[in-house]
Design goal:
The protein has 398 residues and is of the alpha/beta class. It has 14 helices and 15 strands.
Length: 398
């Protein structure tokens, strides 16, 4: 195994930023409870509220729109509820519509009954079928619906037309939750301009700590019931003593992530340099026709590349890359541990023998040109072995 590691799995979890670590260490040196009224408690409360303002700034909302949770999955569970109130009065959503390519925390429906969750199809390019969305909403017989769509797909990096989706949902009188986990820090996000009612975020996708997420209630006139009861924390929406250190780290990471958006082209250039060189590498060993880059014809987040080399199984490739000192994945971190078939590529109608070899490369705040070179060297060796194996198979058959 190489002594130097190239970590290219930021979509699963981005390394902790030094600023986030420093904020967490500072919080851990303090004592007390953020709900206490004495000086020590007020000191911790100040850290929480500072972080709340920092996270709010990341997506362009007021601080009181941010509800901290322990993860984006928990935030999705909190936000996805039939029992939405409008100006204090219950205006219940009867059905939840989710994109087929959503993260599992959305596909499972939150607090909706599974029989009330309806899948919205995607096209072969990974984009939502807007006409089908309109048809589904029109066929609901006038009931209130809830729609949930990722801004950036966690596997392919494909960007959905969120503003257009929101317009369609609003015209139908529905609610709209946007999973912005993979978009935060990688593209500008203006929550109000997005048209979403709710956003979900995750700290560890932007270089913050694991164990902190947030539900953003873009329009406070809307309300959701608590998912965890037992205390008044987080506006009575999330009971339990706040994880002040994780929240402080989240806030520090949000500050840096917002600043990086303005110069994210440097990360995109690194991604593009990988993509541009995959083709000639494959061509040099006669495998160009076996390479597929998913979402190449769609707008994608600048840090993500999902590709497949037909004949190379994902589980084999991940081990080979790891032995070469390169960390990549086969898709969503919530499912890649078992290296199963990608539901995202299945929804895009990708052939199974192509989809089974999908490899995701995702870069982030500390990615370098050296990481790119190490990945490409490893890929060249792995692809060459595949070419030799295929050539031997053909020769044997002859």
């Amino acid at each position: 195994m190489s002594g130097t590691r190239a970590y290219l799995d930021h979509n699963a979890s981005s390394p902790l930023r030094p600023s986030a670590l420093a904020a967490m260490q500072d919080a851990l040196t303090r004592h007390g409870n953020a709900s206490s009224v004495h000086g020590e408690g007020r000191d911790l409360r100040r850290l929480v509220e500072t972080a709340r303002a920092q996270v709010a700034e990341l997506v362009g909302v007021q601080s009181d729109s941010v509800v901290f949770t322990a993860s984006a999955t928990e935030a999705a569970h909190l936000g996805l509820t039939p029992d939405v109130t409008y100006d204090g009065k219950l205006r219940r959503a009867e059905k939840l519509l989710v994109l087929e390519t959503e993260h599992p925390c959305i596909l499972t429906g939150g607090r909706f009954a599974q029989e009330d969750v309806i899948a919205i199809p995607v096209q072969g390019n990974g984009l939502i079928d807007l006409a089908e969305l309109q048809n589904l909403l029109a066929g609901m017989g006038g009931i209130v619906t809830f729609v949930a769509v990722q801004l950036v797909n966690s596997e392919s990096g494909i960007i959905q037309p969120i503003a257009e989706i929101a317009r369609i949902v609003k015209n139908a009188g529905g609610y709209f939750l946007c999973d912005a986990v993979q978009a935060a820090g990688r593209m500008p996000i203006d929550a109000a301009q997005s048209g979403a009612d709710f956003l979900i975020l995750s700290a560890h996708k932007i270089g913050g700590p694991q164990g902190a997420g947030a539900l953003i209630n873009v329009h406070p006139i809307l309300g959701v019931p608590a998912a965890i009861k037992g205390g008044w924390q987080e506006k009575n929406l999330r009971a339990g003593t706040e994880n002040v250190a994780a929240i402080a780290g989240f806030g520090a990471a949000a500050v840096e992530a917002k600043l990086e958006v303005e110069n994210y082209s440097s990360i995109t250039s690194l991604r593009d340099s990988i993509e541009d060189r995959l083709i000639p590498i494959c061509a040099s060993i006669g495998l160009a026709d076996r390479l597929t880059i998913f979402g190449a014809d769609s707008e994608r987040a600048g840090n993500t590349l999902l590709f497949s080399l037909e004949g190379l199984k994902a589980e084999t490739a991940l081990i080979a890359f790891d032995l070469e000192g390169v960390a990549v994945s086969s898709g969503s971190a919530c499912s890649s541990g078992k290296v199963g078939a990608s539901h995202v590529l299945k929804a895009m109608d990708v052939a199974q023998d192509v989809a089974r070899g999908a490899i995701r490369v995702s870069l982030g705040w500390n990615s370098t040109g050296e990481d790119v070179e190490q990945f490409l060297k490893a890929f060249k060796r792995i692809a060459r072995k595949l070419g030799e194996r295929l050539e031997t198979r053909i020769s044997g058959a002859a």
